[in-house]
Amino acid sequence: MIVSVIQTDPEFGNIGKNISQAEDLIAGVTADLFVLPELFATGYNFADAAEAAQAAESPAGPTHRRLQALARRKACYIAYGFAEKAERVYNSAAIVGPDGLAGLYRKIHLFNREKLLFAPGNLGFPVVELPFGRVGMMICFDWIFPESARTLALGGAELIVHPSNLVLPHCPDAMVTRCLENRLFAATANRIGSENRGGLRFDFIGRSEVTAPDGTILVRLGEECGAGMAEIDLSSARSKKINEYNDLLADRRPEWYGPR
Hints:
There is one protein chain. The protein is an alpha/beta fold and 260 residues long. It has a single domain, classed as Carbon-nitrogen hydrolase (Nitrilase/N-carbamoyl-D-aminoacid amidohydrolase), CATH 3.60.110.10. 22% of the residues lie in helices and 28% in strands. It is built from 6 helices and 14 strands. It has helices spanning 15-27, 49-55, 62-74, 114-117, 146-154, 171-182, and strands spanning 2-7, 33-35, 77-85, 89-97, 100-106, 127-130, 133-137, 159-163, 185-189, 194-197, 200-203, 209-211, 217-220, 226-231. A 6-stranded mixed beta sheet has the order 5-4-3-2-1-14. Strands 6-7-8-9-12-13 form a 6-stranded mixed beta sheet, with helices on one face. The protein has a two-stranded antiparallel ribbon with strand order 10-11. The longest helix is centred in the first third of the chain and has 13 residues, at 15-27. The model has no long low-confidence stretch (mean pLDDT 97).
């Protein structure tokens, strides 16, 4: 299969323009699965919870409808981050395909002021069965918690889609370790640009990438808008054997993990 990470430069609050930018980047690429950044349509730096709630939409909302139409035209799947309006407001990610919503995740590990804007996720870490393989979902800051990727690996994920708005410099290199320790692929889609609102500035680092189970960075973008593509064989993520005697998951000793 071919996976593509789409790196955008959203303008805060300009939802129509931001979706169009993503659509234009996707239009020029042929792939089975596209990954867009976290909160790609709205922007990230909400002033307060009321502003986040105003921008939020249901998983079947306008952003979903536009991306589903695009997925239908291109016969592909698209993973993307959005502000979700439900019983509370969540920082969420969805996977949409030609037939509609295929997966939904609510961010479990909230970063910085997100704790003032969004409710913590309550759906666990989902693994979605798609025509080309088993795809796990996490968002941005989840990367710093090894339990996120490990939970997805234990759930059978062969590829992690990772919509992000990264400001810390460590994630692109850390995803090498996440893939090595779980023997799976990861597609991290970040944004570029900056947002300075309410006296708080965030500068986004770009460097979207696709990483292989052996830690190889198959593609990494710089600090520009664009699309990175990698042809991957998900079957190589199904065996967790390192050698004749060691298996990354079978050799786990969870009874010894934790304080004694």
